[in-house]
Amino acid sequence: MAAVLIGAVACQKTYYYGPRPNNSLNNGGNVSNADAANMVANSLSVSTNGVVNIVGDVTLDAASLIRTHAGCGTTQADTISRQSPAGSSTTYTYNSKYNYTVNCGSNNKPDSLLSSLIYSGSNSTSSMSSSNLGNSIFKVAGLDAAATSFVVNGEYKSSGSFASKTDTASHGNNNIDIVITSLTITKASRSITSGTGTISVTGDTPKSGSFSYTGTLVFNGNNVATLTLNGKTYKINLYTGIWTSV
């Protein structure tokens, strides 16, 4: 797939996860730089109901509000439950509750959508399992019919527990914070073309204490994002969650 098809986030999907790179950099506890990158990938990808799914939901509802000519101050609530198909190698279940408000510009015409979300759930991939809850606030610009793209700014937060399947010592609690800036989604193809972000991954493990990683994110288009985390660089497939060390 050449791009993240935002409109297909709720459809049936098959996911594949690549091998976990051997990365010895450890910034506290038993959680390596590679483990932290894995957590970020899971928080982003369609396959684990990450930020890409959330942005997909938000922009789909924005498009719906445009079609119905929603006026200034219009509010709307949306509840979405997702679960992996029976027999999937990657399993997940999530419940999400959205609230939206239509904002208008100086011309008293709708120009942006404010979205707030609370969610809870769990997922399990070939390399890591996690249970988490969190929230997000995103502002979607581009409600004007003349705009060719949506532009999303905001923040996603997650907190919960994790357990590595490749290193039994790597388990505990984690907190993930992703701040998104100018994430651009074309209306015609519903694909992510550009954007940036900042990343924070913190937590603790029972035996070795706390860990902390920070980094940056660049959305490259073509279904790929580049993550730089504590000086290490990774390529993440935003649809499958596959990531590789660069």
Average pLDDT confidence is 87
How many helix segments? 2
Helical proportion, percent range:
10-25%
Report the end-to-end length measured between terminal Cα atoms: 21 Å
Give the structural class: mainly beta
Write the element-wise H/E pattern from the N-terminal end onward: HHEEEEEEEEEEE
Q: What characteristic shape results from the CA principal axes?
A: globular
In total, the number of strands is 11
The order of strands across the largest sheet is 1-2-3-4-5-6-7-8-9-10-11
Largest sheet at a glance?
A: 11 strands, antiparallel
Low-confidence residue ranges: 1-5, 7-26
- Strand content of the residues, in percent? over 45%
Radius of gyration: 18 Å
- Provide the number of structural domains: 1
Instruction: List the quaternary state of the chains.
Output: single chain
Word description of this protein:
The protein has 246 residues and is mainly beta. The protein has one domain. 12% of the residues lie in helices and 51% in strands. The chain is built from 2 helices and 11 strands. The longest helix has 17 residues.
Topology of this structure?
Blueprint lengths: L32 H12 L6 H17 L7 E9 L7 E14 L5 E15 L3 E14 L7 E16 L6 E16 L5 E14 L3 E13 L2 E6 L2 E6 L5 E3 L1
Antiparallel strand pairs: 1-2, 2-3, 3-4, 4-5, 5-6, 6-7, 7-8, 8-9, 9-10, 10-11
Quick recap:
The protein contains two helices and eleven strands. The chain is mainly β and 246 residues long. The protein has one domain (29-245).
Features:
246 residues, mainly beta, 2 helices, globular, disordered N terminus
